[in-house]
Amino acid sequence: MPRRIKYQGGSGPFGGGVRARVDSDLGGEAYRLTVGPDGAEIVGGDEAGIFWGRQTLRQLLGPDSFRRAPIGDPADVPYVIIEDRPRFGWRGFMLDVARHFMPKDGVLRYVDLLAAHKLNVLHLHLTDDQGWRVEIKRHPRLTEVGAWRRRSRRGWGRLPDWDERPHGGFYTQDDLREIVAYAAERHITVVPEIDIPGHSQAAIAAYPELGNADVVDVAAVEVKTDWGVSPNVLNAAESTLRFYEGVLTEILEIFPGTFVHLGGDECLKDQWRRSPAAQARIRELGVADEYGLQSWIIRHFDRWLAERGRRLAGWDEILEGGLAEGATVTSWRSYEAGIAAALAGHDVVMCPRQTVYLDYRQSGDAGEPVPVGKITTLEDVYRFDVVPPGLAGTPHEARVLGAQANMWTEAAETPQRVDYQTFPRLVAFAEAVWSEERDFESFKRRMDAAHYARLDALGVAYRPPEGPRPWDSRTGAPGQPR
Q: Which Pfam families match (predicted)?
């Protein structure tokens, strides 16, 4: 249902309070907001709908309504009736806290920013080669060792350019329970990601027995200090499966949502090809090759999660070697992988790097900090079509749960840099996943008229529409433009 706005005529200072009630006939997350001289009434299809209606009311109340305490006199509001509902049920944002750790307060702040933009999924990328960020009590070395690296690559590039300061941090289980509860109050689901079998060098540094000891000196493996894909992947031993079952048992106790993301991407197969143990495992399992071995691992955890009432999600490489039966695909490399998964009867979350990777540079300006990837402008993100032509209008379209924008942090070492890369493009993304009918010129006018001021009130260090400021750049830090 497209948003319907009916102007009742007139406006006035808002001071009449807010009345709210649920009418399930409206449908999940839908709302009807009525504003008049006596205040506002919000009717929601459920509690989430009421909450999203409140966010729309905040917009009507002006930028100062986004401050943490009221200032000035009550704002004038137009007397309107607005009926609205989201196009998709999965409106997500992936935050990579593994490459550069974001303290808990920063994550809670991002929960508020997602809520203000009616986004309802926070995908936390908690583990990678460069850091393990979640406390696992039965395996304490994952954070004692795996949460810290001795130095970090400065920017991208092949020439040595290092920040020699150690970097690290992790969330205690109670920290994560707090984040989950805080998000739930704002009708946001937190999806944890524990990466397997690739992107696991930090785990192997902490517990060398997880690595391929017959071809690698696993005792010498450290938490990865550089970016890029690590050759150090998990072995396929039963003991490694039991180890990660223990990890996931604790993850399920922290995160009550349906989905657990297990990565499954960029798993280099060289060590498995050279490993007698891995080759024996391939023969034992009766799979065709190393791709089949990865698929077998993913299928194992797909079944393990399903037995506990959960669902596995993974990056689109989990299609290789045969897709796990209950898996949901987060399609990052292209639209084509998402189309293939949907046609095969699997749910899909679209997040193609060509359009919604927010770490990608925003212009060709030399002042862009650490230029990464292709140029992806505000308009590019706004014009993102969640349902690709290969699925639109077919029965398989229903397999598209929605989409998410991904913010990888190899080149974003501070919360300010994350803000710069994320906003205002996340605003454009939020409208793309909420509304089917869109008009970029209208969006630009609304950004200029009000929404940049809202971001200012929220304290967001966004990229200005006129381009990077002198202090936004990182002079001398090499990039990886495409």
A: Glyco_hydro_20, Glyco_hydro_20b
CA distances from 319 to 327, 331, 454 (A): 9, 10, 41
Q: Please spell the DSSP secondary structure of 127-191, one letter per residue.
A: EETTEE-B--TT-THHHHTTTEES-EE-SSSSS--EE-S-EE--B-HHHHHHHHHHHHHTT-EEE
Dihedral of the alpha carbons of 277, 280, 282, 283, in degrees to the nearest 10: 180
The alpha-carbon radius of gyration of the chain (Å, integer) is 23
Own/partner pairs, 149-152, CB within 8 angstroms, 24+ separation: 149/202, 149/222, 149/223, 149/224, 149/225, 150/222, 150/223, 150/225, 151/225, 152/100, 152/225, 152/413
- pLDDT given for residue 75 in this prediction: 84
Positive or negative: CA dihedral 191, 194, 197, 201 = positive
Give the separation between CA 425 and CA 228, rounded to whole angstroms: 25
8 A C-beta contact, residue 217 and residue 143: no
Q: Of residues 178, 266, 320, 397, which has the active-site annotation?
A: 266
Residue 139: phi and psi, rounded to 5, are: -135, 70
Q: Which of 163, 127, 132, 136 is nearest to 145 (CA)?
A: 132
* Residues 407/421, Cβ–Cβ less than 8 Å: yes
Q: What's the mean pLDDT in 352-364?
A: 97
pTM, to two decimals = 0.97
With 90 as the cut, is the pLDDT of residue 14 above it? no
- pLDDT higher than threshold 70 for residue 56: yes
So what's the architecture of 90-437+451-481 in CATH? Alpha-Beta Barrel (3.20)
Mean pLDDT of the chain: 95
Is the predicted pLDDT of residue 5 greater than 90, yes or no? no
Confidence of residue 1 (pLDDT cuts 50, 70, 90): low
Instruction: Give the pLDDT score at 2.
Output: 60
pLDDT attached to residue 146: 98
Domain boundaries, the chain: 4-84, 90-437+451-481
pLDDT digits (tens, 9 = 90+) for 234-281: 999 999 999 999 999 999 999 999 999 999 999 999 999 999 999 999
The residue that leads in pLDDT, 182 or 320, is: 182
Pairing outcome for strands 121-125 and 189-196: parallel
| Residue 7 buriedness (CB in 10 A; 0-12 / 13-18 / 19+) | exposed
pLDDT at 325 over 80: no
SS3 state at 320: coil
In contact, 296 and 287? CB cutoff 8 Å: yes
Q: In whole angstroms, what is the distance from residue 418 CA to residue 276 CA?
A: 43
Write down the architecture of domain 4-84 according to CATH: 2-Layer Sandwich (3.30)
Give the Cα separation of 323 and 343 in Å (integer).
12
For the question of residue 266 being annotated catalytic, the response is yes
Residue 479 CA to residue 319 CA, distance in Å, equals 31
